[in-house]
């Protein structure tokens, strides 16, 4: 980086901080939420709404013990619609990550209109989101995704991410995988996938131009999470 002197003072362009360097290298970062009180409020609100809808008292982690798999999508859509009626939802998610968002993409942002709720019960294959890049579904390539779990999420209860280096390898040979299907990527790069370990109170920011997804939840708890794009 060039240095310049003006009025005998050295001037230079700012360099990447450590968070920016990691994001640029890997395509994702895991950070603490910036307002745990607001996340606790959101979790409590969803817990109460869930119990009201299913008319049973249950924790979010034990949700699968009180609901049949064929009812999950109906309940998820009902909950999502109820949640997104609230004017405070989008500001809340922004408040969970505004400092990091400022570091990664700046403060002149467009934000998705609705927060997307995901509920993944154990052994429920209907909730699996196979390996994909959002840009291939018509999303803007100039965006970042915020992923916030409401319970401790790791292994098959979490999401996987194919780091930047390997995602770029796949994209360079995309003609092959377009013919064979994205599941072939999962086979070829199985040992390169990063399973994100995200305890409650942390969040993920990732570049959705790189490959990510989840598999069948083989753990003993239901995973609840939100994602929203900027």
Structure description:
- This protein is α+β, with helices and mostly antiparallel strands and 230 residues long.
- The chain has helices at 18-26, 36-54, 72-84, 89-105, 164-172, 174-180, 182-188, and strands spanning 3-6, 9-12, 28-32, 116-120, 145-149, 160-161, 194-195, 202-206, 212-213, 223-229.
- The protein is globular and about 70 Å long.
- Helices cover 35% and strands 18% of the residues.
- The strands form three sheets. Strands 3-8-5-10-4 form a five-stranded antiparallel beta sheet. A three-stranded antiparallel beta sheet has the order 7-6-9, with no helix packed on it. A two-stranded antiparallel sheet has the order 1-2.
- It has seven helices and ten strands.
Helix coverage percent of residues? 25-40%
- How far is the first residue's CA from the last residue's CA? 29 Å
Proportion of β residues? 15-25%
Number of helices: 7
Supply the helix-strand structural class.
Answer: alpha+beta
Radius of gyration: 20 Å
General form? globular
- Which stretches of 5+ consecutive residues score pLDDT under 50? none
Quaternary structure of the protein: single chain
Order of helices and strands: EEHEHHHEEEHHHEEEE
Can you count the beta strands?
A: 10
Overall pLDDT level:
91
Strand order of the largest sheet: 3-8-5-10-4
Major β-sheet, in short?
5 strands, antiparallel
């Amino acid at each position: 980086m060039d240095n310049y002197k003006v009025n005998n003072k050295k001037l230079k362009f700012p360099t990447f901080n450590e968070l920016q360097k990691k994001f640029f290298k890997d395509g994702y970062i895991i950070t603490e939420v910036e307002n745990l009180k607001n996340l606790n409020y959101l979790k409590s609100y969803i817990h109460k709404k869930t119990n009201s809808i299913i008319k049973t008292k249950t924790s979010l982690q034990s949700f699968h013990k009180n609901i049949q798999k064929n009812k999950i999508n109906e309940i998820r859509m009902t909950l999502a619609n109820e949640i997104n009626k609230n004017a405070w939802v989008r500001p809340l998610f922004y408040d969970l990550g505004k400092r990091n968002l400022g570091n990664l993409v700046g403060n002149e942002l467009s934000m998705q209109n609705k927060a997307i709720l995901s509920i993944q019960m154990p052994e429920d294959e209907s909730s699996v989101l196979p390996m994909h890049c959002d840009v291939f579904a018509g999303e803007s390539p100039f965006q970042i995704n915020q992923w916030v779990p409401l319970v401790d999420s790791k292994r098959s209860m979490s999401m996987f991410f194919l780091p930047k280096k390997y995602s770029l390898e796949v994209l360079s040979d995309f003609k092959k995988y377009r013919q064979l299907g994205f599941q072939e990527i999962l086979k070829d790069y199985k040992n390169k996938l990063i399973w994100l370990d995200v305890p409650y109170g942390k969040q993920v920011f990732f570049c959705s131009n790189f490959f990510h997804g989840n598999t069948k939840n083989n753990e003993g708890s239901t995973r609840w999470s939100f994602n929203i794009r900027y």
